[in-house]
Amino acid sequence: MSSGDSDKVGRLYVDEGARLERQIARRIGNRSIARDLVHDVFLRFWERAGELRGNPAAFVTRSARNVAIDHLRREKVRNAHAAAIEPPSPPRDPAFDALSARQSGDAVRKAIEALPETTRRLFLMNRAQGLSFHEIAAICGMSERNVAKHMAKAVACCARALEDLRNE
Questions:
Q1: Counting beta carbons within 10 angstroms of the beta carbon of residue 143, is it exposed (0 to 12), middle (13 to 18) or buried (19 or more)?
Q2: What's phi and psi for 59, nearest 5 deg?
Q3: 24: buried, middle or exposed (CB in 10 Å: 19+, 13-18, 0-12)?
C-alpha cells in the first residue's frame, strides 16, 4: 500500500468512523464493541485498499453493517451454548417452601417476642396496624425520631433472626 492510500484510509476513517460507530452501536446496543468493530472494518479496508475500486464510503458502510450482523449472530450462538451448558435449576418443592416460610415466620415471631415491650408495641403498631411513624408518635406522646429508633432496633432484630436461621 502506498502512503497515498494510507492517507486516504486515514481521511476516510476521520470522515466516516464516528457515523459507522453510531450505526453499529444502534444495531448491537454496545458502543464499546461498536468502536472495536469499526476498527476491524477499517483494518480490513486498509489491508485491501490497493485492490478496491469504487466508492470507499459505501464499502465501509456495507462492511460495518455486515460486521454488526456477524457479531449479533456470534452472540446468539454464544448465548445458546451458554444456556445449554447451564444446568437447569431443580424444581421447587412446595413442601420445602412452606416449611421454610413457617420456620422464617417462627424465627421472626420469637424475635418480636424478645423485644422490649415499648419497641415491640411500636413495631406492631407500624407493621400490623399500618400506622405511620407520625401517627405512632402522636398516639404514644414521643418524637418521630424516637419511634424511628425503636423501629430500626426491631427491624435489625428480625433481620438477625432470619440470618441466624439461614446460617443454621
A1: exposed
A2: -60, -50
A3: buried
> What angle, rounded to 10 degrees, do the helices at 117-127 and 94-113 form?
130
What H or E segment, with its residue span, contains residue 42?
A: helix 31-48
CA 108 to chain centre: 31
Which residues of the chain fall below pLDDT 70? Answer: 1-5, 50, 52, 86, 88
* Calpha distance 116→109 (Å, rounded): 14
In whole angstroms, give the CA distance from residue 167 to residue 75: 39
Q: Which amino acid is at 118?
A: T
Identify residue 55 by its one-letter amino acid code. Answer: N
- The confidence score (pLDDT) of residue 12 equals 86
Closest by Cα among 20, 12, 10, 18 to 61: 20
Largest alpha-carbon pair distance within the chain?
A: 88
CA 112 to mean position of chain CA atoms: 35
pLDDT tens-place string over residues 70-105: 999 999 998 888 777 867 677 778 888 888 888 888
The pLDDT value recorded for residue 7 is 79
Query: Contact at 8 Å (CB) between 10 and 49?
Result: no
The distance in angstroms from the start CA to the end CA of the chain is: 71
State pTM to two decimals. 0.48
